Amino acid sequence: MISSASARRLDIVELAHTSGLTSVDELSARFEVTASTIRRDLAILTADGKIARTYGGAMAIGAQAGESSFRQRNLEHSEAKAAMAHYARTLIADGETVLLDAGSSVAALAREIRSGISLTVATTSIAVVEELAESDQLHVECLGGTLRQASSGFVGPLTEAALERMTFDSVFLGADGVTTRGSGEICEADLQQTRLKELMCRQAAAVYVLADATKLGRELFHARASLPAGWMLVTDATAGDDVVAEFAGVGVDVRVVGADGTLVTR
Fold first, then answer.
1. Is 235 in contact with 84 (CB distance < 8 Å)?
2. Which of 60, 163, 186, 232 is in the most buried spot, having the most CB atoms within 10 Å?
3. How far apart are CA 78 and CA 265, in angstroms?
4. pLDDT score of 250 more than 60
5. pLDDT exceeds 90 at position 113
6. Does residue 263 register a pLDDT over 50?
7. Beta-carbon neighbour count of residue 7 at 10 Å?
């Protein structure tokens, strides 16, 4: 297929939104042009805001070009998030020191721990702070830094410096996507986010990732955080058996939660 530069770039944008990840080599063969021509096309489209470069270094484009806002994500899959949060509450013991990440699933967990338990909670999330602000049973540490409006959370060197002075019994992480690479990876839109998540994991004895089924295997962005061996994935009952088996196959402790917040046996 031979096309003009403008027509080819329109086709690339369409592919990015309909076919998911596509490599430079695949695009080069499809359009019968050199890899350097495709890289130039991708650079132009990225600069114009038409696509987002994703995993694979300079070798891929993503099926979705933007990061949705926290407000948008908070409205999505709310029942699944509430169920996962209800179960995740059972993983926390009275008197522990817990780290809560930014993200709508973790904010749902914050709602679960507002009463009935005494904890020290540290967080990078404005939404979590808002959920816990009126609880008199919790000691809350706010880890400030540079605000990312899209995630309603703090990142950057100030946040990292604060984290390095603390250790935690457990950390609960959100994710834009979760994959089975290595012992598992979290995919995010921003390298500062993934750097921070890796530091969170290093500072915690137990690592939990709250991710509804739509996040599993999802690879929209280029930034990755490696997860340590022995982490636990908490997901909802719409996750397919094959996907659950794939995560279990790399050593992940997968907990599938039903609509009532209890474990589903498979």
1. yes
2. 186
3. 22
4. yes
5. yes
6. yes
7. 12
Contact between 138 and 115 (Cβ < 8 Å): no
> 70 φ, ψ to 5°?
-60, -40
Beta strands in the chain (DSSP E): 22-23, 60-61, 97-100, 119-123, 138-142, 146-148, 153-155, 168-173, 177-179, 185-188, 204-210, 223-226, 232-236, 253-257
Q: Which amino acid is at 141?
A: E
Q: Any idea how long the chain is? A: 266
Q: Are 153 and 188 in contact (CB under 8 A)?
A: no
Q: Dump pLDDT digits (tens) for 8-40.
A: 888 887 777 655 545 677 788 888 999 889 888
177: nearest Cα among 207, 148, 228, 220: 220
Rounded CA-CA distance 19/56 in Å is 16
Residue extents of the structural domains in the chain? 5-61, 70-257
70-257 maps to CATH 3.40.1190.10: no
* Token duo for residue 100: 């809560």
- For residues 152 and 188, what is the distance between their CA atoms, to the nearest angstrom? 14
- CATH 1.10.10.10 assigned to domain 5-61? The reply is yes
Predicted confidence at residue 60, as pLDDT, reads 40
Is the pLDDT assigned to residue 1 strictly greater than 80?
A: no
DSSP 49-63: TS--B-SSTTSEE-S
149-203 confidence digits (pLDDT tens)? 888 899 999 999 999 999 999 999 999 999 999 999 999 888 999 999 999 999 9
